């Protein structure tokens, strides 16, 4: 049987060429031939995503690529997961949304995808979410982290309101993580709005959240 | 002393004048000058013109802008705006949610939309006051980006990159409709008195697209659009454009607006003598920077790009945010006057 690292390289190539069919054929063939789904996930698909993560950090890939790659990877991961014994996503629960008045969903969607790929349970509250709803849902679902994706400056004030609400209700252990173009252009805004952390892209979001919640 | 218009013409012809032109893009600060809400200001042509007039008297920069924000373009597509006290309005929803609805999407003529009529009125009033001395700018959303605003960014990307069959079926209609609207709207602004128009094309920028995609899909459209607009066009990346710098002269634009990720010196080299570069002070950071920091940033950009003309000092992105304090705008303009001087050496 072909080695995992060789398969990983092939999978990465398919991702980089945005070749959905080739990626799909490869994973389907592996599963048909009895390849261990767990190995496929951990040693083939996830490492490919990590490689792309590094490229994004260096601005070597653009949004269009990340968008398609994430869809391809998610599709294949779902296919592999079906073959694996059911177990809940283990890393914890995350609440995600955009602040009231902000209807930009693309960054949020990418963040949700990559967090799910990293085994987090993500409750996506959608677009233009009231700060009470962020906090109520976080408490109700025992979430460790609230993630807010903000593209517009003037609606990002909703983030401060989430912070205040968390503190007022004694839930200051719930972490507040932010991202979006604003924070990339001015990382100082993170502190201004009372967030615990920010990340410049969806893949770093996973890293930052792992660090904050003490996961591996 | 040259007028702001002469200053701009000099730099556009890639010559050095007394100093570089300075364009802080202040779409919102006029409301503060007039003591009115942004909603009132954005929807009243007289106020927009009066706001621009007071701002240029206050800061003595080199341009006026008749447009309040580009989100208003979508009013012609039947969309609604939700206003905010401290920033541009956002869309209340999308015009269509499925690709096939493009066939029945009705687009109004801008002159039938009250807010857009007010924008034209603002440009007319500015022309009365400033024509021939201060350059008057119009603006709108470029056709490659417009669909992201009437069907949503995700649906638009999905159609472009992930649905080849649907793309085949619908893309032409999306782009033609967007182009026809953009050309008509920009030409109306020019007729009203704008000296040039800015077309904002964030979805075509190197932040979103690969070079091949830009070449295959965005470039042909931009070229035709610009050729159909009856006046000079400034092409705004909204995001980065540096990776496409060598391609930009083909577009037909007189100038391009770059973002803060773009290396100004490198872009300037690629475009020297062909296209004027505009930019690229970080607009979001202007809120928190000290005046000293602003001066340093402005100096760095001037050092990188002012030589030989072909440069306009501006912020990156489509606006200076409402919350940027007056003293920071003042620092920006004054630093431009100081570090953008050409030592009297007219080439
Ligand atoms: C494309 C674009 C446009 C297009 C299309 C926009 C659309 N359909 O909404 C056009 C040209 C039409 C446009 C118009 C406007 N735009 Co615009 N636009 C952009 C641009 C270039 C890219 C936005 C985008 O979609 N990026 C793609 C997504 C995937 O990236 P992202 O959201 O940043 O997400 C990534 C990371 O940030 C991170 N992330 C995201 N969320 C989260 C969350 C967490 C928790 C974490 C950890 C990480 C994370 O991961 C994601 C994936 O890597 C940005 C500038 C830029 N360089 O980003 C400006 C920008 C967003 N626009 C801006 C503005 C001002 C406007 C206008 C208001 C202009 C005007 N004055 O009229 C209008 C309003 C638009 C609207 N929707 O209401 C400003 C907003 C800041 C502000 N001042 O408030 C920006 C930042 C430009 C700037 N420098 O000023 N725009």
Number of structurally distinct domains of chain A:
2
Rg of chain A (C-alpha, Å) = 18 Å
Helical proportion of chain A, percent range: 55-70%
Largest interface (C-beta under 8 Å): A-B, 27 and 32 residues
The CATH superfamily of the largest domain in chain A is Cobalamin-binding domain
Q: How does the major sheet of chain B shape up?
A: 8 strands, parallel
Lateral arrangement of strands in the main beta sheet of chain A:
2-1-3-4-5
- The number of distinct helices of chain A, counting runs of at least 4 residues, comes to 10
Number of domains of chain B: 1
| Assembly category | heterodimer
CATH topology grouping of the largest domain in chain A: Rossmann fold
Bound molecules: cobalamin
- Main sheet of chain A, how many strands, which sense, barrel? 5 strands, parallel
- Mean pLDDT of chain A comes to 89
Which residues of chain B sit in consecutive blocks of at least 5 with pLDDT less than 50?
Answer: none
Number of helical runs of chain B?
A: 12
Output the radius of gyration of chain B. Answer: 19 Å
SSE inventory with pairings:
The complex is a heterodimer of chains A (216) and B (347).
Chain A: H1 4-16, H2 20-32, H3 37-57, H4 63-82, E1 93-97, H5 106-117, E2 121-124, H6 131-140, E3 145-149, H7 157-168, E4 175-179, H8 181-185, H9 189-192, E5 197-198, H10 202-213
Chain B: H1 4-12, E1 22-23, H2 29-34, H3 38-42, H4 45-59, E2 64-65, E3 81-84, E4 87-91, H5 114-130, E5 136-141, H6 146-150, H7 153-161, H8 164-192, E6 196-200, H9 211-228, E7 233-236, E8 255-257, H10 264-271, E9 276-281, H11 291-305, E10 311-315, H12 326-339
Bound molecules: cobalamin.
